[in-house]
Design a protein that fits this description.
single chain; FAS1 domain; two-stranded antiparallel ribbon; 7 helices; 9 strands; disordered N terminus
């Protein structure tokens, strides 16, 4: 008899629990994030959370070239994922230092793979803190190559060419704004 009463109680709890779950789901729908049908992670619309790396870069007037390159290389969905990532983000002025026509050439669909390789050379997995950088430190990048940190006057310089001019936190990592584009070693 006790077993039958216990079983009936569990069944009733499950029935009422399931009914309430639908009500709870309906009530929280208004607070969930919207996603465009068929889109990737980058299509999730979320105006409440801290901005991810792509959202932060997209709002920066100094990173329009970088954002255009990330889009042309189809890397937006990768960079909005949870990560965490450390992104060394060249400014528009950094891209302007490249030989004339380089950026336009890289943005062509035929050069998508080369562009992706260059952009992935600017990304490390994990959150790297500048306080932990050491002279001669070698850091693996997403494209499979390494960058090297050189400390000059207590400040890190990447590959001997790029200075970190700002640090910007993001929901899925950190962005280090740099003053030169990092070019991966030729293969």
């Amino acid at each position: 008899m006790k077993l039958k009463l216990f079983t009936t109680s569990i069944c009733m709890a499950l029935l009422f629990g399931c009914g309430n779950a639908d009500k709870v789901a309906d009530a929280t729908t208004d607070h969930q994030h919207e996603q465009t049908a068929g889109g990737g992670q980058s299509t999730v619309k979320d105006d409440d959370s801290q901005k991810n790396i792509v959202q932060v870069a997209s709002e920066s007037p100094d990173h329009t070239t970088l954002v255009a390159a990330v889009k042309a290389a189809d890397l937006v969905d990768a960079l909005v994922n949870a990560g965490p990532f450390t992104v060394f983000a060249p400014t528009n002025a950094a891209f302007d230092k490249l030989p004339a026509g380089t950026v336009d050439d890289l943005l062509k669909p035929a050069n998508k793979e080369k562009l992706a390789d260059i952009l992935q050379y600017h990304v490390s997995l994990g959150v790297l803190k500048t306080a932990n950088f050491t002279d001669g430190q070698v850091i693996g990048q997403v494209n499979g190559n390494n960058i090297t940190i050189k400390m000059e006057n207590g400040r890190p310089k990447i590959n001997g060419v790029a200075n970190i001019i700002a640090e910007v936190p993001a929901a899925n990592g950190v962005i280090y704004v740099i003053d030169n584009v990092l070019l991966p070693p030729t293969k």
